[in-house]
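Before relying on records like the one below, remember that each one covers exactly one chain. Contacts with other chains, cofactors or solvent are not represented anywhere in the record.
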Amino acid sequence: MKRADMTMDLDRREYATLVELLHFAMWILTANDHEPEPEKARFRELEQKLLARAADFDCGDLVHYAEEHAEHMPTLAVEQACDPYIQEYDNDTFWQELIIRLAERDFMRDADDDEPAPVDVVEIHERLAPYQERYAQEFEANGLETLEVVPRRDSRVTLH
């Protein structure tokens, strides 16, 4: 089977949406990177290829070339338009991860060594659900207000 290059027609609005999607994707992929990671190069290369076409779509107001980085980047206007969605994602992820990790920790602490560990995904979710619900209700009602780090005698840190 012959492989064909892809051709796609986009109007200005669609290209502008694509620039925002690229910003979201690259944020998720690289926001916590301290240095460029080689295994992510293919994503950066495609991003650059797409952002370099901004002028073709009369979207020079959405993409600029940063000489100091030698790359095309979304403008501040794009970042500001995307920021509420990124903040919502970061906030939701924070609470979900906190609830899941605390629930898993408590589940493991309460686990009976004689009881077989759940192997089925559905069973794992069912057994974690009460722990997750307890934390979800607590954080919904109080946020981080009642969360404290209490040092243990054996010098490990525990969250209550």
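The chain has a mean pLDDT of 91.
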